[in-house]
Write a structure and sequence with these properties.
891 residues; alpha/beta; Nucleotidyltransferase, domain 5; Hexokinase, domain 1; 6-stranded mixed beta sheet; 28 helices; 26 strands; elongated; binds adenosine-5'-diphosphate
């Protein structure tokens, strides 16, 4: 019967091999984003991405929460390769009831320990970073952010599960008036052990704890830790393997004794692996085996065994003493007698066998788990052989030499491709925790520096209200006949007096110049809608920046090519010309170019009527069938094309290469055009807002650097804060500054990043997408020959977010001025208006429109603003302006 019990507790090697396989499977399940939620082995990210490199430095406080005590340490790291860390520590016993009481009481107690400890070592009052070793499973999202998932190991304090343990400790510490102590890192005891073992010589990449409970951690390939979005290098994963088997995968090795132990525990059905391995349960397993054997009358026959009915009567310490070989059976006898069991020689011998079987089984199972980790590491690193150091701690490992021997030999059998060197952890977790804290501290200091650098780019509500007010003032100046010349916002009349009414009909040609592409279009406006065909033509930079004659010649050539292709040579169609540069318009078909923007600089054009330039070129090219009826800005085209679908659309907005807006203003307010009746569309040319210095307070050094390098330095200052042509450049300059300050890419020089325009605005869109974006960040940075770490990628993302948020908010401040003016013009308490929008930045950026609309609601609460994206506003809009004009012209 005794043999039968021993047999039940012995797991054959094939079965252990199967257990290893299941552990591997469970680990993969925990790592994958899809299956993580259902996984028993949770594989929690720890946000620890490297083992210590010896440069860690400073005075660090460590608090370790243990089973029955709290240990506080002060560790002084000297940055000397961790040769001689100085450690002072103190242990505080915990009152027994505290681990099942209120959460607040637990944290207050821990904070009191910290206070007493600090008082005892008369520590200086300068800031002290604290690392918290918290041996329970937490959902960690940063080094200093960790929600307790669930208590274990007999702890069950109220109001802690689901909360951020770092915050709980920090507030308890505040209550003790220890204002100079900052909790900067939280880690599991396994992680602390791994780090401690790493401090001497070779890095240690795996750690096991076999104490009251059991757990492990290891350095995983970061891209496999899908929950953390880490993308390069490695990250330590806390396996939380104590819950392995909670889904029934271990049922074939569970004995009836294990079932009893589980049922009598405070958490039946949970932590099945831990209940086979952790010392909290081993005494109980032995007790149940003994009870069964007593019932079968093969143990302690005729003796009083009532004591065996008491739960937890057999402590781990006693089990370890019973199996101790040194004094033969004497110790076993002493322990059993102390329990009042009056054992015979044979009883002692049998009890000893049983205890050994239980502890050996624990060691073998641990080996199966370790073998799974090692094989996983070997496979994911694509190695044929793997040699690693494994830090081990816990009373079972320390208390019984055979445990380590079994662990080592069984692991070798189950993972023959791996060579594990077990390193007993001599100093526990404290020094390792100090190292992790030092690293966290470095990161926190960097975060502060980064925030300082980015602060000028962050605009407060008050800032934005000021921008809105300034825009409003500039608008008034631009409209006034006297003040017009001094305004930075030119408020150009467009001679467009109405939006479409739906009766427009006919076939039109349209040109679109001033966007990324030059296009020629034919547009048919009919009862059942609008049909278009178009062709994109390239304007070489040499032509954009050459002579005006060459530019307009080129345009005519493109039109002729288009007409040929579309078989339109014979017809004379009315032409609408979308010309997206600031013009002084003198009529619908007369527009004097005021200045080039967006990279154009063709000579001999500024001050000329562009329609005339086009007609002259047509003559030069002997193209006679050209009838230009309207020049339109792209903002106006956008407003018109959206107006065709929504009569409320009285504003046009562009956020593409450049930015600009137009809106319907009351004629009586337009001082620069005769007439008081009705409305006229005003092309604001708001890109130049600030060119008179009124926005100087808001420009940062980065903006100045970007501006200096443009072909129109000092001009279009508002545009240069907002639009696609510049956002990437702003980001690039910030990144360069961060590298210079050693805050990015470890300060390594990045030659490619020195190249102008290499960081494209479309990268911002990719980088700011939620989800797996960090992988994308890395891919983009890799193209720029930048090797980004996890922190680097996050930082680049933060920079992009800051720059695009500012752009969206400034745009909102401008629009707020517009809609508020329209509301006041019309004497309304509430204005409902639609904005027709175009521009790739607005359309493609994942956050821009959201931020813009949110900010606009805040700045103009009395206006209900709807945004309508225009489909090809420039083409369709030009045709519609032409159509509206023709409608008026033909009786
Ligand atoms: P335009 O304003 O010249 O008519 P677009 O509206 O297409 O042309 O805007 C082009 C600008 O949009 C480019 O200068 C580029 O900076 C920016 N851009 C291109 N792709 C994206 C993207 N995916 N996300 C954000 N911005 C983009
Ligand atoms: Mg455009």
């Amino acid at each position: 019967q005794v043999q039968r019990a021993l047999l039940a507790l012995t797991i054959p090697l094939e079965t252990l091999q199967a257990v290893k396989g299941r552990m591997l499977q469970a680990m993969r399940k925990g790592l994958s984003r899809q299956t993580h939620a259902q996984a028993n082995v949770r594989m929690l990210p720890t946000y620890i991405c490297s083992t210590p490199d010896g440069t860690e430095k400073g005075d660090i406080l460590v608090v370790e929460l243990c089973q029955s005590h709290v240990r506080t340490l002060r560790v002084t790291l000297l940055g000397d390769g961790n040769q001689s860390p100085q450690v002072t520590y103190k242990i505080f016993d915990m009152p027994g009831d505290i681990i099942q009481g209120k959460g607040e009481a637990l944290f207050d107690f821990i904070a009191q320990c910290v206070r007493q400890f600090l008082a005892g070592i008369s520590s200086p009052q300068h800031r002290l970073p604290l690392g918290f070793v918290f041996p329970f499973s937490c959902r960690q999202t940063q080094l200093d952010k960790a929600e307790l998932i669930s208590w274990s190991k007999g702890f069950s304090c109220s109001d802690v599960e689901g909360k951020d343990v770092v915050q709980l400790l920090q507030s308890a510490i505040k209550k003790q008036e220890l204002h100079h102590v900052d909790v900067v890192a939280l880690m599991n005891d396994t992680v602390g052990t791994m780090m401690t073992c790493s401090m001497r010589g070779e890095p240690c990449e795996v750690a096991l704890i076999v104490g009251t409970g059991t757990n492990s951690c290891f350095m995983a390939e970061a891209q496999l830790v899908e929950m953390a979005e880490e993308i390069s290098g490695q990250m330590c994963v806390n396996t939380e393997w104590g819950c392995f088997g909670d889904d029934g995968t271990l049922s074939d090795i569970l004995t009836p004794y294990d079932q009893h132990v589980d049922q009598e525990s405070s958490n039946p059905g949970e932590k099945r692996f831990e209940k086979l391995v952790g010392s909290l349960y081993l005494g109980e397993i032995v007790r149940h085996v003994l009870t069964a054997l007593v019932a079968e009358k093969v143990l302690f026959t005729g003796r009083s065994v009532a004591i065996l009915r008491t739960k937890d009567v057999l402590k781990t310490q006693q089990v370890l003493e019973i199996i101790d070989n040194e004094e033969g059976m004497a110790k076993a006898r002493r322990v059993l007698e102390a329990l009042g069991l009056q054992p015979s020689e044979q009883d002692c011998c049998r009890v000893q066998q049983i205890c050994r079987a239980v502890v050996s089984r624990a060691a073998a199972l641990c080996a199966a788990g370790l073998a799974a980790i090692l094989s996983h590491m070997c496979q994911s690193r694509e190695l044929e052989r793997l040699a690693v150091n494994v830090g081990v701690d816990g009373e079972l490992y320390r208390g019984y030499t055979r445990f380590g021997e079994i662990l080592q030999s069984v692991t070798g059998l189950l993972a023959p491709e791996c060579m594990a060197t077990l390193l007993p952890s001599v100093d526990g977790t404290g020094q390792g925790a100090a190292v992790v804290t030092a690293v966290a501290l470095r990161l926190a200091a960097q975060r502060r520096e980064v925030d300082q650098l980015l602060a000028p780019l962050r605009l407060s509500c008050a800032d934005l209200e000021r921008v809105q007010a300034l825009m409003r003032r500039e608008m008034e100046l631009g409209l006034g006949l006297e003040s017009h010349a001094n305004a930075s916002v030119r408020m150009l009349p467009t001679y467009v007096r109405g939006t479409p009414d739906g009766t427009e009909r006919g076939e039109f040609l349209a040109l679109d110049l001033g966007g990324t592409n030059f296009r020629v279009l034919v547009v048919r406006v009919a009862q059942d809608g609008i049909l278009m065909a178009s062709e994109i033509y390239v304007i070489p930079t040499a032509v954009m920046q050459g002579t005006g004659e060459a530019l307009f010649n080129h345009i005519i050539e493109c039109i002729m090519d288009f007409q040929l292709k579309q078989d339109l040579m014979e017809q004379v169609l009315p032409l609408g010309f979308t010309f997206s540069f600031p013009c002084q318009q003198l009529g619908l078909d007369k527009a004097v170019l005021l200045s080039w923007t967006k990279g154009f600089s063709a000579s001999g054009c500024v001050g000329q009527d562009v329609v005339q330039l086009l007609r002259e070129a047509a003559q030069r090219k002997q193209h006679l069938g050209l009838k230009v009826v309207a020049v339109v800005n792209d903002t106006v085209g956008t407003m018109m094309s959206c107006g065709y679908d929504d009569p409320k659309c009285e504003i046009g907005l562009i956020v593409g290469t450049g930015t600009n807006a137009c809106y319907m203003e009351e004629m009586r307010n337009v001082g620069t055009v005769e007439g008081e009746q009705g409305r006229m569309c005003i092309n604001m040319e708001w890109g130049a807002f600030g060119d008179n210095g009124c926005l100087d307070d808001f420009f940062t050094d980065f903006d100045r650097l970007v501006d200096e390098k443009t072909i129109n330095a000092g001009k279009q200052r508002f545009e240069k804060l907002i639009s696609g042509m510049y956002l990437g450049e702003i980001v690039r300059h910030i990144l360069l500054a961060l590298v210079e300050k050693q805050l990015l890419f470890r300060g390594k020089p990045c030659p490619k990043l020195q190249t102008r325009d290499i960081f494209q605005t479309k990268f911002l869109s990719t980088i700011e997408i939620d989800g797996l974006a960090l992988r994308q960040v890395r891919a983009i940075l890799q193209d720029l020959e930048l090797q980004a770490s996890f922190e680097d990628s996050l930082l680049v993302q933060k920079v992009c977010q800051t720059v695009s948020l500012r752009a969206a908010q400034l745009c909102a401040a401008g629009l707020a001025a517009v809609v508020e003016k329209m509301r006041e013009n019309r004497g309304l308490a509430q204005l409902a208006v639609t904005v027709g929008v175009d521009g790739t930045l607005y359309k493609m950026h994942p956050r821009f429109s959201q931020h813009l609309q949110q900010m606009l609601r805040d700045l103009a609460p009395n206006c209900t603003v709807t945004f309508l994206q225009s489909e090809d506003g420039s083409g369709k809009g030009a045709a519609l302006v032409a159509a509206v004009a023709c409608r008026g012209a033909e009786p």
